[in-house]
C-alpha cells in the first residue's frame, strides 16, 4: 500500500480513491500556501486556529470546526494562522454531489473525527474494505453540513481588487467611499454603483464583512478582543463588539465558542 504523506506539497491526484485526507499542524510548515489547483475537490477544515482561502472572486474564512469547500480544478491559495492545525479532505469529482462553487460549511464532531481517522489510513485503501465503507458514510455526511456566511466577494475588476488588497493589508483604514473614489480616480457615485455591481454589497457592508472575517481569524488565533478592535480601527473594544453582535447575533468569544460546539448536520435535507 502507498505510504501516508501528510505534507502540504502532496499531490492528491496521484490516487483515484473517492476521498483521502491529510492532517497538518502548521507549526511544522509555512503558513502561506501559494496558488495551486488539483482535479479533486478539497475541504479545508480548521481543527484549531483558522485559515483564509482565496480564489479569483472571493475570500473565505475558516474558523475552528468549520471547513471551506473548494471545487476541483479551481485555483486557490491558503493562509493559515501560526497556531493552525488543519485537516484536508480531497474528494474525487464524481464521488458525491457537492456544490460547484466555494462555500464555508459547519462540520459536525462525527465528520471531523472521520476525516482525522481517514488521514491516518493508507492512500490506496482497497474497494469494499473498512476504510472504503467509512469513506462512503463520510461523504454522505458531508453533503448534509450546513453553510455559514464567512465569504467576502472580491471582483476581478482592477479598482475593486486594489481596494480589497489595500484594506486586507490595512484593515484599520477608515477612508470613506468618497475618499476611496478620489484615491482611485472615479466619482463617488460610480464607485458605489461599481461596488454593488461587482460584489453584490454596498461599500459599508463589504468592509464590515471583511472586518468580520479578519476578526474571526485573529480571535481564533488567540488575539485578544481589544487588540483585534485596534487592528480594525475601532475607537474601543465596545464599539467593535457592538458591530460584531449586530452582524452575527453574539459577541466574538461566544460566537466562536458556539462554532466549536456546533457543526451539526441538517438531516431535514434527507427527507
UniProtKB/TrEMBL annotation:
The keyword Transmembrane helix does not apply. PROSITE patterns: HTH_ARAC_FAMILY_2. Pfam families: AraC_binding, HTH_18. Keywords: DNA-binding, Transcription, Transcription regulation. InterPro entries: AraC-bd, Homeodomain-like_sf, HTH_AraC, RmlC-like_jellyroll, RmlC_Cupin_sf. PANTHER family: HTH-TYPE TRANSCRIPTIONAL REGULATOR NIMR (PTHR11019:SF199). This is AraC family transcriptional regulator. It comes from Pseudochrobactrum kiredjianiae.
Amino acid at each position: 500500500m502507498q505510504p501516508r504523506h501528510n505534507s502540504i506539497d502532496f499531490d492528491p491526484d496521484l490516487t483515484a480513491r473517492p476521498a483521502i485526507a491529510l492532517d497538518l499542524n502548521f507549526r511544522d510548515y509555512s503558513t502561506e500556501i501559494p496558488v495551486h489547483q488539483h482535479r479533486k475537490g478539497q475541504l479545508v477544515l480548521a481543527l484549531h486556529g483558522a485559515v483564509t482561502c482565496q480564489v479569483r472572486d472571493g475570500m473565505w474564512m475558516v474558523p475552528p470546526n468549520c471547513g471551506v469547500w473548494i471545487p476541483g480544478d479551481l485555483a486557490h491559495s491558503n493562509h493559515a494562522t501560526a497556531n493552525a492545525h488543519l485537516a484536508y479532505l480531497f474528494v474525487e469529482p464524481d464521488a458525491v454531489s457537492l456544490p460547484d462553487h466555494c462555500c464555508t460549511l459547519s462540520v459536525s464532531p462525527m465528520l471531523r473525527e472521520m476525516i482525522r481517522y481517514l488521514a491516518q489510513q493508507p492512500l490506496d485503501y482497497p474497494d469494499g474494505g473498512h476504510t472504503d465503507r467509512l469513506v462512503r458514510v463520510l461523504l454522505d455526511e458531508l453533503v448534509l453540513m450546513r453553510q455559514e456566511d464567512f465569504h467576502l466577494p472580491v471582483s476581478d475588476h482592477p479598482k475593486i481588487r486594489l481596494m480589497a488588497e489595500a484594506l486586507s493589508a490595512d484593515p484599520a483604514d477608515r477612508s470613506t467611499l468618497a475618499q476611496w473614489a478620489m484615491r482611485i480616480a472615479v466619482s463617488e457615485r460610480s464607485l458605489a454603483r461599481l461596488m454593488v455591481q461587482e460584489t453584490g454589497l454596498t461599500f459599508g457592508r463589504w468592509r464590515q464583512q471583511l472586518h468580520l472575517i479578519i476578526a474571526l481569524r485573529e480571535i481564533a488565533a488567540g488575539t485578544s478582543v481589544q487588540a483585534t478592535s485596534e487592528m480594525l480601527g475601532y475607537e474601543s473594544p465596545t464599539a467593535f463588539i457592538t458591530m460584531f453582535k449586530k452582524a452575527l447575533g453574539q459577541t466574538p468569544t461566544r460566537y466562536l465558542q458556539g462554532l466549536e460546539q456546533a457543526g451539526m448536520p441538517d438531516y431535514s435535507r434527507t427527507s
